[in-house]
Amino acid sequence: MARVDIAVPMFNGISTISECLACLAEQTFTDFMVTIWDNGSTDGSSEICADFARNDSRFRHVRSQTTVPPLENFKKGLRLASADYFMWRADDDLTDNGFLAATVKALDAKPDARLAVANVRRTNTTTGRTADYQVPVALKGDHASRAAASLRACHPSWFYGLWRREALLADLAVLDAYPFLWAADHLATMRAMLNDQVAFAPESTFTQRIMKEGDYHLSSVERLRARKSYVAISKRLLDEGDYSLSDKAILRKAIEQHANRRVAPWFRTYKRALRERLRSLLPS
Hints:
This protein is an alpha/beta fold and 284 residues long. It has eleven helices and nine strands.
């Protein structure tokens, strides 16, 4: 059995899937199995995936005859994986060739880590703008200080890092109580961040390509609800940890600051939500 299972959920990815699969095939770490979960593609990408799988025994192409909701196709890859280490790879994202080697090394070196992540480069293919986000490699202090630093430095693409599969199964279950896509990627990594269980691979880079904007943006009223739910779940996860009362107070403040950046700034969103409610009460 391979050490790493990689799931590639894909639907009509003809413009990106070839580059995605080539990126995985060229990894210097080779003990992996890739399963392409083809969600009934109709644009010719299925044929590309099938041909790739015929020529590399580390790749499997599983095509659904019907198109299911994207999240269902996404979860299928995790549910049917069996390796100790697991990751998803979106068909429009890339990494350097040493990404798997670096993240496997990072997880191996930190036995209590739930997740290993690399630096992130965010590239908007429409505007050409790029931004780099470095992992916080020089974390110092106690567990609470390092957890707070992870909350400040995290990036949504950490979700696409290399997970211990059993840890991910538990952490993904947290989302059952969070009925939003907005910031769900951050919430899935919350337990790992709060418990100082993120391993860092600063020698590697994950490239997140923004091909188009997502369609899951929320109104101010809904974003305020999302923030409230997000913070409540995060604080419940914090209470599971073995922290002193003073450390919990520090991390509760860090969660609020994190939510302001990653979910919604509380005061500004509150004002906008209030205006939305007032407008809805006015006669048309």
